[in-house]
Design a protein that fits this description.
Blueprint: H1 8-35, H2 41-53, H3 55-79, E1 92-98, H4 105-113, E2 118-125, H5 132-138, E3 142-145, H6 151-162, E4 170-175, H7 185-191, E5 197-201, H8 216-232, E6 247-250, H9 251-257, H10 269-279, E7 284-288, H11 305-320
Parallel strand pairs: 1-2, 1-4, 2-3, 5-7
Antiparallel strand pairs: 4-6, 5-6
Helix pairs in contact: 1-2, 1-3, 1-8, 8-11
Length: 330
């Protein structure tokens, strides 16, 4: 575990955006005040204070960011050695999470099973109400069910199952909705000597097929949350996509990380996973991957922009304040 440090850049970024919000709100309320010719001195004073005093958190935020960038980051970079740990065995166990993915799970299983590096495919269903488990088994997967309802519980169970095998040192996590493809495994393996965990990034526009569930709002919102998490661990990793499930993990890293993860963190589990991994001193590297339209109906954080916004706010809360790891009240 790395020594805990104050994430100055994270808090500085939060203060900077708070300042921008206060300034824009102050400008916005000036418009109806002018149109309605409100000469109330109190309204004018509040309006002016919002605009002028928004500079206080702005200056404070920029100062905190500067502390990390100009004082702490050089020390972090000098202390960090470039990692190169070649793999003794590059074979992979693939684990797919699934929830009511009957129409597409078999295609996803066959795609991953066809890759020459894949030894087995495990599908973990999260109490699916359709024939997801049956279709996965028919396609050749080891099909299991996770009874604790929630995305985080399903992902955690999948990683536990995949890392149990002795004939593979790597566990590849993906989803059973066909949004990701097996041919990107080669990219993950190429980056693996430099990392404990390689995460796929969907931010390369030319690698996205048209009409995926990733809207423009989700794309840039995800990028913002990624940079917020990067600011929290400045110098430890470069992040651009904290919402993707697709990642390759060394089993040795999962052995130490999984016991620290709560199964009760739900749709915000992916940034929670990365936050915990980086804080534990694991090396996390991103690589660009392709992204495709999902099969069936989206049921997670990509249902629509409003759902994505609410999930994103929980992600931001977890990064800034801490993750809610408690079971949901029944």
């Amino acid at each position: 575990m790395r020594r805990r440090r104050i994430p100055w850049a994270l808090y500085g970024t939060a203060l900077t955006f708070l300042a921008g919000g206060l300034y824009l709100f102050g400008v916005a309320i000036a418009i109806p005040r002018r149109l309605l010719v409100l000469d109330n001195p109190t309204a004018l004073m509040v309006n002016e204070m919002l605009v002028w005093y928004s500079g206080v958190p702005l200056v404070a935020g920029l100062l905190l960011i500067a502390i990390d960038l100009y004082w702490h980051l050089p020390d972090i970079n000098r202390a960090r050695a470039l990692r190169y740990a070649p793999l003794e065995n590059a074979d992979v166990t693939v684990v797919l999470t699934a929830y009511n993915d009957e129409v597409v799970i078999a295609d996803a299983v066959r795609d991953f099973a066809s890759h020459p590096r894949v030894k087995r495919v495990i599908v973990v269903s999260n109490n699916s109400r359709d024939r997801t488990i049956e279709r996965a088994s028919e396609a050749g997967a080891i099909a299991l069910n996770e009874e604790i309802q929630g995305y985080g519980a399903c992902v955690r169970r999948a990683l536990i199952e995949g890392s149990r095998y002795d004939d593979t040192q790597l566990t590849l996590l993906s989803e059973g909705d066909a949004t990701f493809r097996a041919y990107d495994i080669d990219k993950f393996i190429a980056y693996m000597p430099h990392a404990d965990i390689v995460c796929g990034s969907r931010t390369a526009i030319l690698l996205q097929q048209p009409r995926t569930q990733l809207t423009t709002f989700m794309h840039y919102g995800n990028l913002f949350v990624s940079k917020l998490l990067e600011a929290k661990h400045i110098g430890r990793s470069t992040l651009s996509d904290v919402g993707t499930t697709y990642k390759l993990c060394r089993n040795s890293a999962l052995e130490s990380l999984l016991p620290t993860l709560s199964p009760y963190v739900n749709l915000e589990f992916n940034p929670y996973f990365l936050d915990k991994a980086i804080a534990a001193g694991l090396t996390v590297v991103e690589c660009p991957i392709t992204f495709h339209p999902r099969g069936g109906v989206s049921k997670g954080g990509n249902v629509n922009d409003w759902v994505a916004f609410k999930v994103g706010m929980r992600m931001i809360r977890g990064i800034l304040i801490g993750w809610d790891e408690r079971p949901s009240p029944t």
